């Protein structure tokens, strides 16, 4: 997936019952990608998405008023 889409387009997640969090973490740990890509997938991509959405919250508060 990293070769096809890029590490910046992949976000760590689990699908609940089929693959456990432990399985997913091991798969990421064992992946043949550099540490920067692993960090992007595990932490940084989600932080970037959440951070960009958080700036919309004040606008919603103003709309409700």
Description:
There is one protein chain. It contains 4 helices and no strands. It has 65 residues and is an all-alpha fold. The radius of gyration is 16 Å and the shape is globular. The N and C termini lie far apart (44 Å). The model has no long low-confidence stretch (mean pLDDT 84).
Q: How far apart lie the N and C ends?
A: 44 Å
Tell me the β content. under 5%
Computed Rg: 16 Å
C-alpha geometry:
globular
The class by helix and strand makeup works out as mainly alpha
Discrete helix count: 4
Mean model confidence by pLDDT? 84
Biggest sheet record: none
**Approximately how much helix is present in the residues?**
55-70%
Extended strand count: 0
- Low-pLDDT stretches are none
SSE run = HHHH
Write the SSE topology.
Blueprint: H1 2-5, H2 21-30, H3 35-54, H4 57-64
Identify the notable features of this structure and list them briefly.
65 residues; mainly alpha; 4 helices; 0% strand; globular
Short structural summary:
By secondary structure, this protein is mostly helical. It has helices at residues 2-5, 21-30, 35-54, 57-64.
């Amino acid at each position: 997936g990293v070769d096809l889409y890029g590490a910046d387009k992949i976000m760590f997640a689990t699908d609940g019952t089929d693959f456990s969090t432990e399985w997913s973490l091991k798969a990421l740990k064992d992946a043949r990608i550099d540490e920067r890509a692993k960090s992007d997938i595990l932490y940084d991509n989600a932080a970037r998405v959440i951070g960009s959405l958080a700036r919309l919250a004040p606008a919603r508060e103003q709309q409700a008023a």
